[in-house]
Amino acid sequence: MIELTIESLAYGGSGVGRHDGKAIFVPFTAPGDRIRCRVEREKKNYADAELVELLAPAAQRRHPPCPVFGRCGGCQWQHLSYPEQTLWKERLLGEALRRQAGVIDPQVLPLVPAPDEWHYRSRVQFKCRLTPKGFVTGFYRRASHYVIDVAHCPISDQRLNQVLRLFRQWLPPSSAAAQIPQLDLEVGADGTVRAVVHYLGTDPEPLAAYLRPLAESIGLALFLQTGRKSTLTQVTGPSQLVIEVDEPALRLAYGAGGFAQVNLAQNRALVAAVVQAAALTGTELVLDLFCGMGNFSLPLARRAAAVVGVEEYPPAIVQARQNAAANGVAGAEFHATPAEGAASRFGTPHPFDLVVLDPPRTGALAVVKDLLQVRPQRVLYVSCDPATLARDLRPLLHGGYELVWSRPFDLFPQTYHLESLSFLRLITG
After folding, report:
1. What is the DSSP letter of 213?
2. CA-based R_g, the chain, Å
3. Residue 349: is the preceding peptide bond cis (ω within 30°)?
4. Candidate list 66, 153, 291, 384, residue with the active-site label
5. How far apart are CA 77 and CA 29, in angstroms?
6. Is 153 a catalytic residue?
7. pTM (predicted TM-score)
8. For residue range 271-322, what is the model confidence (pLDDT) as tens digits?
């Protein structure tokens, strides 16, 4: 057992203190906390520890409102005031750019905070288990597959919490309860709620017949999924949800199994920032990589000469084309193909003036290598992971690009997760 003072926060959510010259990472602590902790895993240069006793709390520490905080694996920072959370997210992005990307003095613009730190998630996956004590619906305990029972999630949209309450009544009496491992809930911009019930049995029809009238009684869109996304089956209700971006608003539809950002208000702010940074004049050729159903492509296509959107998931490309037609947006074409090599393949004979990329958490290192070959004048990189962002920026910065600025966006209050937008420009002369 050791005592130490927490000095900072690390990406991943843990507080960091030092003992005998070694960094000690302790979850659920705050900078300024004086604590007693137990070392669980010791490495050469650092150790992971468990908080045992809070000896003296930091001034910015608060009481977390969620009764399962610290047990549920979803949130890491409910014990921090929201201004403190945003301060550290801004700092952590700057640290990643300095230490990992090698930027000496990164221009980190002020973080864009969420308009509401609670009830912001428009999409949630609830884990389900039938146990000897009853049917449990909630989230995995941190670093385990044990399901913590959750009746109400304070970061989930209230409409999802209302539907969750109903499923907690509907699913236990079902004969299929033991074969339901997951419940996906999401809400669109117009308030429509869609549920996807995952089912491990061989015949989903009895479950569909049981849930159909219940879903219809509250106007719920309901799907069953018996394996991969290709097994999704519509039971009742509309097949698509809609989000809104840009001004005047574009209504972008996406089907069950499709992707949309979980914070709809912050997604609109992020799209607006991309449009502003692009500063299009109507003459540019734009490539949008990992384009999904057109979240960035269609707002940019309103302002560019032409936009090419690339996404490997074919249903998303079908959706992007439909969204372009439904919103009357011309000048955008979409291709179901990997992002790797797309800049070379579609940038001939006319090279792209701007490339926008919004990769998954694993980043886009192979795409970066392609960009260094075709050398677009400008790159806008939307990232959900500072570590892979920094890794991907290094070859660009060594290959003739300068990082003009990066800006963090808080799409995920109460967690350490961080979205950012970075603007790179090719150095000429």
Report:
1. H
2. 23
3. yes
4. 384
5. 9
6. no
7. 0.95
8. 999 999 999 999 999 999 999 999 999 999 999 999 999 999 999 999 999 9
